[in-house]
């Protein structure tokens, strides 16, 4: 195996490992927003955001929520 091919395989393996690590963290939730909205509505039930939010911090609205 030539030296160039070995370097390409090493860097390719590194890129594949990073992509495999980012998929469940970033890309899956980004492509399944409805599922994650349902999960968050169950997890946040009964929590008053004003009690949890620090004083003076603006509470941002949901960008996906139709107005």
Automatic annotation (TrEMBL):
Transmembrane segments: 7-28
Record-level GO cellular component terms: mitochondrial inner membrane
Any Pfam family the entry gives: MITRAC7_Phoenixin
Aminoacyl-tRNA synthetase keyword on record: no
Keyword annotations of the record: Membrane, Transmembrane, Transmembrane helix
One GO process term, biological-process aspect: mitochondrial respiratory chain complex IV assembly
Keyword ATP-binding listed: no
Name of this chain's protein: Small integral membrane protein 20
Organism: Scleropages formosus
Higher taxonomy: Eukaryota, Metazoa, Chordata, Craniata, Vertebrata
Gene responsible for this protein: SMIM20
């Amino acid at each position: 195996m030539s030296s160039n091919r070995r370097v390409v395989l090493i860097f390719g393996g590194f890129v594949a490992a990073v992509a495999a690590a980012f998929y469940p963290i970033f890309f899956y939730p980004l492509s399944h927003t409805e599922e994650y909205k349902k999960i968050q509505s169950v997890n946040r039930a009964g929590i008053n955001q004003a009690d949890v939010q620090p004083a003076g911090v603006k509470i941002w609205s949901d960008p996906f929520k139709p107005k």
